[in-house]
Design a protein that fits this description.
Residues 44-157 form the Plastocyanin-like domain. This is Plastocyanin-like domain-containing protein. One of its GO terms (molecular function) is copper ion binding. The chain is of the alpha+beta class. It has a domain at 35-157: Cupredoxins -  blue copper proteins (Immunoglobulin-like, Sandwich), CATH 2.60.40. The protein is 17% helix and 30% strand. It has helices spanning 8-34, 183-193, and strands at 37-51, 54-61, 70-73, 77-84, 92-95, 121-127, 133-139, 149-155, 175-178, 202-205. Strand 1 (37-51) and strand 2 form a beta hairpin. The protein is globular. Bound molecules: copper (II) ion. Residues 93, 95, 138 line the site of copper (II) ion (CU). The site of copper (II) ion (CU) has 3 residues, from strand 5.
């Protein structure tokens, strides 16, 4: 009979083990409980954009040039539904992001995925793991990246300080190039002739060519920086 009864010492050990297991489980749940799931819809489509006094129909995301800024926290899980209303195949790449077990969300066309055809859609799903800082996203098909790009800002997890004094304020600075021609046509001409592609007509900061070029918007070009 004595063999059937559970020794008191063993039951105390079982209790403490169970409590320890509960603590470990609750601790491991803590970071994911703080992390957010974030959903975005990126509509890739042709949009009229006026630069250098000329209106061009370029491919954008959500009619924005540069495209929308994604602002998230380390540990967040993202789902970005890309809907292709453009006349070209497209993929989106999350530049600099470590795709841990999410290789199919990385974006290079014909490398990790078939491109999204006109009229199609694809949802990129990935979790940001142990990364902080400002990256960028861009099209990874043909030269669509010329106008299909934007900032990807990853803040430290809530409650985790910056690895430097917190800045007074922050804003993305996005450098790009602008052609007076359709960039896809510039690339196509290069492939036909075998010559290097024509150089761009201007560089741009945050989608603007600057005060020295015609038809620039003065107010869009002022950046006041405190040191
Ligand atoms: Cu890239």
């Amino acid at each position: 009979m004595a063999g059937m009864a559970r020794p008191a010492g063993l039951s105390m050990k079982l209790c403490s083990c169970a409590a320890l297991l509960l603590l470990v489980v609750s601790c491991s749940l803590l970071p994911s409980a703080l992390a957010e799931k974030r959903f975005y819809e990126f509509v890739v489509k042709e949009t009229p954009v006026k630069r250098l006094c000329m209106t061009q129909h370029v491919i954008t995301v959500n009619d924005m040039f540069p495209g929308p800024t994604i602002e998230v926290y380390n540990g967040d899980t993202l789902a970005i539904k890309a809907i292709n209303h453009a006349q070209y195949n497209v993929t989106l790449h999350w530049h600099g992001l470590r795709q841990m077990r999410n290789g199919w969300a990385d974006g290079p066309e014909f490398v990790t995925q078939c491109p999204i055809p006109p009229g199609g859609s694809y949802t990129y799903r990935f979790t940001i793991q142990n990364q902080e800082g400002t990256l960028w996203w861009h099209a990874h098909s043909s030269w669509l990246r010329a106008t299909v790009h934007g900032a990807l800002i990853i803040h430290p997890k809530p409650g985790v300080p910056y690895p430097y004094p917190k800045p007074h304020s922050e804003f993305p600075v996005i450098l790009a190039e602008w052609w007076k021609r359709d960039p896809i046509a510039v690339l196509r001409q290069s492939r036909i002739t075998g010559a290097p592609p024509n150089i761009s007509d201007t560089f741009m900061i945050n989608g603007q060519p600057g005060d020295f070029l015609p038809c620039s918007s003065q107010s869009d070009n002022d950046l006041h920086i405190m040191m």
